[in-house]
Write a structure and sequence with these properties.
The structure is a homodimer.
Chain A lengths: L6 H12 L21 E8 L3 H11 L5 E4 L7 H5 L3 E3 L4 H5 L6 H11 L6 H9 L3 H10 L18 E3 L6 H13 L8 E8 L5 E8 L10 E13 L8 H7 L18 H8 L4 E2 L4 E4 L13 H11 L1 E4 L12 H13 L4 E6 L4 H6 L3 H7 L4 E3 L2 H7 L4 H17 L20 E6 L2 E5 L2 E2 L6 E3 L6 E7 L16 H20 L1
Parallel strand pairs in A: 1-2, 1-7, 7-17
Antiparallel strand pairs in A: 3-4, 5-6, 6-7, 8-15, 9-14, 10-11, 11-13, 12-13, 16-17
Helix pairs in contact in A: 2-8, 2-17, 5-6, 15-16
Protein name (chains A, B): Flavocytochrome c
GO molecular function (chains A, B): FMN binding; oxidoreductase activity
Pfam family, one (chains A, B): FAD_binding_2
Chain lengths: 506, 506
């Protein structure tokens, strides 16, 4: 017997259904009765129009599958389109031009080391091994344009960051969208997923969507049931902007933390995927950026100064004028270090001179002029003036810079272990300074998936038939700490693989 | 419309049910049809007979509720009964006798600091505030006997560990079981929970149990449906012995790691609680002990030497003869440090002289004699003999001990920050040594619950009516790192509170 159907309950339900009554049960039931009739039918439905969603759409549609892409917000691209556009790649012409020796194995090592070995080693290997062909695919097939320079981002052991000429993730999102448009696929904005339909055999068979949904207005839009004959693919991103959900997983991340995320980075799909039995792993690993400017809303743009100017060729000090961390450590190490300084009542300040801005200006021309004009970075003729303005002891600041300059000359940082090869000592002004304060940025954990994106069931630990996922909605690639520039790589590589698998394996 | 009942499906199900057919769907459906008839009815069903389960049974039954306690293994007590019996308590006579100044606030600070502030601050406060009355309750009402001494355990800032005279957790489990027996409650062993019934209104209403179940023999035992008119309370413990489940959450913890846990510490109830919509948080935080003896199976008993002799009054060295960690840091810090040494091809060795054993012998008389006789700890007349046997340089070992002796005299350890007050320098032999190697020990994460033990739903983040949980099955009290001795405290305090709430609020 084990589990019995209760005939009385079924008959009762039937009577209620006949009377047109929708029981409250529907809101909590972990499976949902599938519609008797579908409003629309397609092969693959993709939820989300960021890096993962659009590359999944390319992968799926290239097999000949019929694909629908849904986006709950009024515009496409989610966090991806406001992303910095810096992508990790291995074996690029940009690395070759700077004689950078790199390999998939070295990238995989960096990912595991920074991820505290909490990563799924199979995913790490897969992503690292595609860090070269992913770059080529973007350039050759999608038509993405990258700058000729390479950047050095926190946690990586060599420079690997290639940057879109657009200077943001839109430089990838827009070409992907144009590529899909030629194939007749246009993401449907304002389409909110209200229900994932998982049938009595455990298969995901479609979605209930609200068309014309207005974000933040519950119940808005017209309900529509769309059937997916092959698969539903979840690429809904993270929940960094959802204070209630994130603080349930990490109680530190209350509303006092701002976020770099767009307002739609909320948890609805996390809850819905969990409701139908999607297994979540490592969701408590929520990354804060170290280097955001508290004067800006959201991600802003002057974080580039913290990372690529002061972090790569300058110095980070607290308002006692002292270095307190490896300026190019991984994000967790640096964000935690800043929180410790803030806990002492101090501020974290990125400091550099004009010469240190050269590398960034090569990638983002006009950056410094704009930031100074916007009053987001401040300029000083002397370190004395800078120190006075930030109420820090000038002598200590000068001593910290002199010490770091010595490390630049030696090519070794015995204080914090920063990689300081080929860096010029900071001697002449003008000097620049900007405060940095952590913001909630990236969800490392998420749905447990196989290499080809199949979502595991909480109960059986086996794939849920018809359900795939990729990108920030999933866990395992990054472990405890995602390295900067690895989000785009992960989303594109795993997204394309999952889209292809969803269309061919269903 | 949002979600529609499909009349055709319902009629089909009805026809199948009438024909006595149990659909395969039952195995994966996230809700389960409740039985048309129950085999037994009670107020509260408690799953698990460890510290949390039995204290919940006391809490519930003291309100007058009818309680059933289920245990899948042939004997009661799970990991609790093989636990060390060292419990965190504040304001005890044992602390007073040693003039230890302590407070709930100090305990809460220690828990948050070691937990990396990933803990739920409300749970921390609740547990810390009951660390005194919990001790009194055990002594005065349950009849537990504690030794007159107090121990100093890793991560705590003052000595707080009181130890049962039985020298293990059985010194608490047996009196709790005797207390319950007087009230007519005896845990039912070999009762495996196959299904949690959650009805169409979202309420948990009972369980399908296999009576006479034999652990490891799937499908054994006779199915029985038990109704809980008030609540089901989950106190099923952790999954430390379940390699597949734990390595899905933390891929490092493969079969190469042994475990201190009893064989029944597996994931069946984790999967079943998740299947019906129980929200899991922080399950990837799985603690390894630092100090287990690799010569012993499971927990063994000689870890006491690593913690309470060498950790409290001796030294930990690697096989280069060098100290490598604060011997009384929290478990994660020490376990990770040992793994680093092992990664270099070295071993971690606990070393102490006879004088250092005094405190432990006060609590576990005869311990050293037994361990030496069992060949689990080795004795040497001189440090030269010890060093030779462990293939470590004697000079380095002697220098490390001399340096630490200096710290003991100064009352300060500038090398690793260990608290070294009131410790005698190690001068005379005989000397003892034992290897230590991490084993999987405790699951910090688990079901998200309110202070009174209500389990949250993954979809609504609100309590699931009729479902409670406590103990290692839950997350939030310990955050990233559980301090030694805090498991008993957490399980008893939260178990009793949840049992009381389940019986009075239902």
């Amino acid at each position: 017997m084990t589990v019995q159907l209760s005939r009385r309950n079924i008959l009762k339900s039937t009577a209620l259904a006949a009377a047109g009554f929708i029981p409250a049960a529907a809101a909590i039931a972990q499976t949902t009765k599938i519609p008797s009739q579908w409003d629309e039918t397609t092969d693959i439905i993709i939820v989300g129009s960021g890096f993962a969603g659009l590359s999944a759409a390319v992968g799926a549609s290239n097999t000949g599958a019929k694909v629908i892409v849904l986006e709950k917000m009024p515009t496409i691209g989610g966090n991806s389109v406001i992303n910095a556009g810096d992508m990790c790649a291995v074996g690029t012409p940009q690395q070759a031009a700077k004689n950078v020796k790199d390999s998939p194995e070295l990238l995989a090592q960096d990912m595991l080391r920074n991820g505290l070995f909490l990563n799924d080693p199979k995913k790490v290997k897969f992503v690292a091994e595609h860090a070269n062909d992913n770059y080529k695919w973007l350039v050759d097939e999608i038509g993405v344009e990258f700058m000729p320079v390479v950047g050095f981002t926190g946690g990586h052991s060599v420079p690997r960051a290639v940057t879109t000429t657009a200077g943001s993730g839109s430089g990838i999102i827009m070409p992907l969208a144009a590529y899909l448009k030629k194939k007749g696929i246009e993401p449907r904005t304002r389409n909110y997923v209200e229900r994932i339909y998982r049938d009595d055999n455990g298969r995901v068979v479609g979605l209930c969507v609200r068309e014309g949904y207005r974000f933040g207005k519950e119940g808005s839009g017209r309900p529509k049931n769309i059937q997916a004959t092959k698969a539903v693919l979840l690429a809904h991103g993270g929940f960094g902007a959802d204070v209630k959900y994130r603080s349930l997983l990490d109680p530190k991340l209350t509303e006092i933390f701002k976020t770099t995320n767009q307002p739609g980075a909320t948890s609805e799909m996390w809850k819905e995927a969990a409701r139908i039995g999607g297994m979540m792993i490592q969701s408590d690993w929520i990354q804060c950026t170290p280097w955001n400017n508290p004067l800006e809303k959201g991600m802003g743009y002057t974080w580039n100064f913290g990372q690529y100017v002061a972090g790569e060729a300058g110095i980070w000090v607290n308002t006692e004028g002292k270095r307190f961390v490896n300026e190019n450590a991984n994000r967790k190490v640096r964000a935690d270090a800043i929180l410790v300084e803030q806990g002492k009542g101090l501020k974290a300040v990125a400091v550099a001179n004009k010469a240190a801005t050269a590398s960034l200006e090569g990638r983002r021309p006009g950056f410094m002029d704009k930031a100074l004009k916007d009053n987001l970075i401040k300029q000083y003729d002397s370190l004395d003036a800078l120190a006075a303005d930030w109420k820090m002891p000038a002598d200590t600041l000068k001593a910290s810079i002199a010490q770091l300059n010595g490390y630049f000359k030696d090519g070794k940082d015995p204080q914090f272990g920063r990689i300081v090869k080929d860096l010029k000592p900071m001697e002449e002004g003008p000097w620049y300074a900007m405060e940095m304060s952590p913001k909630v940025h990236h969800c490392m954990g998420g749905l447990a998936t196989t290499i080809d994106g199949k979502v595991l069931d909480v109960s059986t630990l086996e794939p849920i038939p018809g359900l795939y996922a990729a990108g920030e909605a999933t866990g395992g690639t990054h472990g405890a700490v995602r390295m900067g520039t690895n989000a785009i790589l992960d989303c594109l590589v795993m997204g394309r693989a999952a889209g292809t698998a969803a269309a061919t394996q269903g």
